[in-house]
Design brief:
mainly alpha; 68% helix; 311 residues
């Protein structure tokens, strides 16, 4: 389905609505009205898909952001927090966003409850601001409601939740980022925004001090790299390249290259280590180029080494 002519879709909707209205006033037969309504429903569905596609095509590059530096301790006497709490229910969404930002800087424990409530705000931008603010505050009582918010329908909110949950550096939140956000389970990922949220989660998991989650996250990424949809594969490839800029990424790829049972995973690890062009990876690649038990892994490792020499 082509989405280039979105104004044309809207015009078609307007014409069809007028047509249905005129038929209804003229007492046209019911089958004709029903057929027009069916076409109308199809056009509305197309408009929704086109709008979502346009929003995703303008998505920013996938980057491995640093985890939030959370408040070292929380107080209960910050006057700015009192003012921000009062503004949280303002009818103006922009003021609610500003209130969340103010609460994030307050390091006041009273900010947690209104920010948790804002996770259910009708405006996506307000929910995003609340997620980010809770990540900066660092009060662990917010972890459970943040995990529940992973059901949010907007991928940008889910991506922000991955950043915030990992910033707690706690087993419960890190496990949720990996096994609820990143892991698609039996469900096939076919939506660009959904995959972006999962890939951002993979990068955030690889920023953790606790490395128990990192390799499994990369395993999910490797499955995304095989997606039959070229656009989704490109998102996964962008993420795999960005792993270089995480705390654990290239260390885990070296571990996968040396230890993983699946030749396909070892091939992918060798390929991206070559792309990173890091001297620290050279010994592992050299070892794989001559000693891996799978000839295809040896070939990719040798090509990675050759590529590093040329860069």
């Amino acid at each position: 389905m082509q989405c280039r002519n979105q104004p044309g879709v809207i015009n078609s909707l307007c014409v069809l609505i007028r047509e249905i209205s005129s038929k209804d006033r003229a007492g046209a037969g019911q089958p004709g009205v029903i057929n027009s309504l069916c076409v109308l429903i199809l056009l509305i569905g197309r408009l929704i898909v086109c709008t979502q596609s346009a929003a995703q095509s303008g998505a920013p590059p996938i980057r491995a952001h640093s985890l939030y530096e959370q408040c070292p301790s929380l107080q209960t006497s910050n006057e700015s927090a009192t003012n921000a709490i009062a503004s949280r229910t303002d009818n103006d969404a922009q003021k609610r966003i500003e209130a969340a930002a103010g609460l994030a800087k307050s390091c006041d424990s009273r900010a947690v409850e209104p920010l948790v409530a804002a996770l259910k705000d009708s405006e996506v931008s307000v929910r995003l601001a609340a997620v980010e603010a809770l990540g900066q505050l660092g009060d662990r009582s917010a972890i459970e409601p943040l995990i529940e918010a992973l059901n949010d329908q907007d991928w940008r909110v889910r991506a922000a939740l991955g950043h915030t949950l990992c910033s707690f550096q706690a087993y419960q939140s890190s496990n949720a980022a990996l096994n609820t956000l990143v892991n698609s389970g039996e469900r096939k990922v076919n939506d660009e925004g959904d995959l972006r949220a999962r890939c951002i989660g993979i990068l955030m998991v690889n920023q953790l001090r606790d490395v128990r989650f990192s390799r499994k996250a990369i395993g999910f990424l490797f499955t995304f790299l095989d997606h039959e949809n070229a656009k989704l594969r490109r998102i996964a490839e962008e993420t795999a390249l960005e792993l270089k800029n995480t705390r654990n990424g290239y260390h885990e790829l070296i571990g996968i290259l040396k230890q993983h049972n699946y030749p396909d995973f070892r091939r992918k690890a060798a390929y991206y280590l070559g792309k990173y062009n890091l001297e620290e990876a050279r010994p592992a690649l050299a070892e794989a180029a001559t000693g891996d038990r799978d000839p295809s892994v040896q070939k990719v490792a040798k090509e990675a080494l050759d590529g590093m020499k040329k860069q």
